[in-house]
Amino acid sequence: MNLALFGFKASGKTHFGKLLASHLHRPFVDLDDLIIELYTEKTGKRHKIKQIYKLLGASEFRSLEHAAIQSLKNVDNSIIALGGGTVLDKKNVELLMDVAALVYLKAGAEKLKKRIFQDELPSFFNPKNPEESFWEMIQEREPIYRSIPASCVDTDLLDEPGVIAKLNSILLLEERPNGL
User: Fold this and answer.
1) Is residue 61 assigned to a domain?
2) Which CATH number do you get for residue 141?
3) Is residue 68 part of a domain?
4) Distance between the two ends of the chain, CA-based, in angstroms?
5) How many domains does the chain have?
6) SS3 of 9, please?
7) Residue 97 included in any domain
8) Contact yes or no for 37/135 (Cβ under 8 A)
9) Can you list the positions of beta strands (E) in the chain?
10) pTM of the model
11) pLDDT, one tens digit for every residue, the chain (180 residues)
């Protein structure tokens, strides 16, 4: 059984995914890395995920992302970190539900804002008004994230070991004992 973590940029998907994978001695898969690999195979050029998004534009990027999700059909017993926009497409959610138990890593808007604004801004933010872009992202995505049939872990309410313990318990509940 795979466990796929989704949520806003800077919600801790990669951080907690790597920690959980290490704790459970399971492979960690970052969807961004799969997208980079597919892009490199397709073009012969290697770029960071943000640059790929800029080069391809939203629509082509989402097509590449969908192809990366399809490659997860061959992945098992792994912890998967998804991109913040991955689950905005219902087709992606349907595919993901076939290969993993989904978990929404929820973090408060102010914490997300602080984390996002301390690094280079996402390519989908308007550089002339990043603050407005941030709040638009929150308003657009939060209802979608909540509507997905998934467990939810509020990272604001738990310390790091608590988040890992909660994720581990979700995984244990999702897995069938002894292959039943």
Assistant:
1) no
2) 3.40.50.300
3) no
4) 12
5) 1
6) coil
7) yes
8) no
9) 2-6, 28-30, 79-81, 100-106, 151-154
10) 0.93
11) 999 999 999 999 999 999 999 999 999 999 999 999 999 999 999 999 999 999 999 999 999 999 999 999 999 999 999 999 999 999 999 999 999 999 999 999 999 999 999 988 888 888 899 999 999 999 999 999 999 999 999 999 999 999 999 999 999 988 766 554
